[in-house]
Structure formats: C-alpha cells, structure tokens
Specification:
heterodimer; A: 91 residues; Ubiquitin-like (UB roll); five-stranded mixed β-sheet; 16% helix; B: alpha+beta; 10 strands
C-alpha cells in the first residue's frame, strides 16, 4: 500500500457552513463571504452569532439557506450555504 | 422561458425581437406584454449620476424561475423572457426587460405585472446610487411603483 504523506490531513470530513453577505451588509462587515466550522451550530441565528460574535443582526435583514428564503430560526447543517442581505431593490 | 442576467449593456427591443423570432409560436400567440425598466437620473429629490447593480448569482435565477412558475400556474402563459442588467448603469439605460406571450391580452397584462412585482420584491438584486464623485447610497427599498 502506497503511503501518502498528506493523507492524515484528509481523514476527517471538515464540517463547514459557507456564508455570504450582500450589498450594504457586505460593506458594513467588510467582507462578502466566510466559512465557519459547523460543529455545534443548529440554526441560522447560530451561524450569524458565530461569524459575528460582537454584532447583532441588523433589522430587516433577509436570510436564505441554500438560496431559499427562510428566517433566523431555520435549521442548518454541514455543507449549507447561508446568505444574509438587506431588502432587495432590483428592477 | 428564458432568464438572463447580463453584465453588458443590452437593447431590450433587440432582445425581444431576437427571442420572438426563435419562438415556435407563430400564429398561436395573440398578445405580448412588455415591461422595460430604465434608469432615472433622479431619486428621492437628488440627482443620480450612475448606479451599481449587485445580485446573488444562482439565487437570483432560482427566484425568478419560481416567480415565472407562479405566473404560469395563474395565467395561460405561453412564454416568458426576462433580461436583467447587473454592474454599472447610467441614466436612460435599460435595467430590466420582462416580456410575456399569451393567447389573450388579460393573461399577458396580469402575468407580466405579477412577474415584475415579484422580481422587485423577491429577486436578490440591490442598487447603489452614485450621487456625486464622493457621495453614494444604497437604495433601501423599492417604491410601490406609483409617482404619488
């Protein structure tokens, strides 16, 4: 059996949640995306507080999980994509 | 049905003609309702020099697809074309095109209205207005669509 020196680094699946911020929220936070360890995070609210521990979620912020609208109480799991953004203004 | 998010300038009338020429509906549709949204050079009492349109790629197309699906369940829609610009736009340039083909005018008017109102309230796009070289602001909400 061939020995792969880097194999041990990939033995365990990394539990992560991808986060996106848009528009004014992206500017306020100073970045448009982040990735956090999903361990112990059960809801969208938990995602926000883990990623932004010293900041409350701004009023009127909209939330999507895997590109579907939801709310901060929605459950999340490993591999989810969570987005936070202000009211939409297209068209 | 075709939904397209474009980063380049587009001519809505050319897009409309081009799409209609490819439709296999000749002799079948009796109404085409078209909405074109164009950038104004003013908003909330101030002159706007340009506008930056941002979107959530993937979710935007998904939401627009859902909005069109809603319309097709409520009205007898034969085809829909949506084109929306993202990036920088200047006054008088088109931002969005919604076109709906139906057999009867009532379905075309109502479905087109439903789609553009759904786009404005659910599709994840955002506008940032450039008021001067130093001053810009995010549009916080869309109007109800009436001047008064």
């Amino acid at each position: 059996m061939r020995y792969y020196p880097f194999f041990h680094r990939y033995r365990f699946k990394i539990m992560s949640i991808k986060i996106h911020y848009f528009a004014s929220l992206k500017e306020i936070l100073g970045h448009g995306s982040a990735e956090i360890d999903a361990t112990g995070i059960a809801t969208v609210s938990g995602v926000w507080h883990t990623a932004n521990p010293h900041r409350i979620i701004p009023p009127n912020t909209l939330v999507a999980v895997n590109m579907t609208y939801t709310d901060i109480h929605a459950h999340v799991k490993d591999g989810d994509e969570v987005a936070f953004f202000p009211p939409v203004t297209g068209g | 049905m075709h939904i397209e998010i474009v980063t380049h300038d587009f001519d809505p009338w050319q897009s409309l003609q081009h799409y209609q020429n490819r439709l296999a509906l000749n002799g079948k549709f009796g109404a085409t309702n078209v909405f074109v949204g164009t950038m104004r050079d003013f908003n909330e009492g101030e002159t706007v020099q340009s506008m930056l349109l941002e979107h959530y790629s993937g979710m935007t197309e998904k939401q627009l697809g859902l909005i069109v699906a809603e319309a097709t369940t409520q009205w007898a829609v034969m085809d829909v074309l949506i084109v929306h610009k993202v990036g920088t736009v200047f006054p008088q340039q088109p931002i969005v095109l919604v076109a709906v083909w139906t057999a009867q005018r009532g379905d075309a008017f109502d479905a087109c209205r439903h789609i553009i109102e759904g786009l404005k309230s659910k599709a994840p796009f955002w506008k940032k207005e450039q008021l001067s070289a130093e001053k810009s602001r995010w549009v916080e909400k869309n109007s109800d669509g009436y001047a008064l």
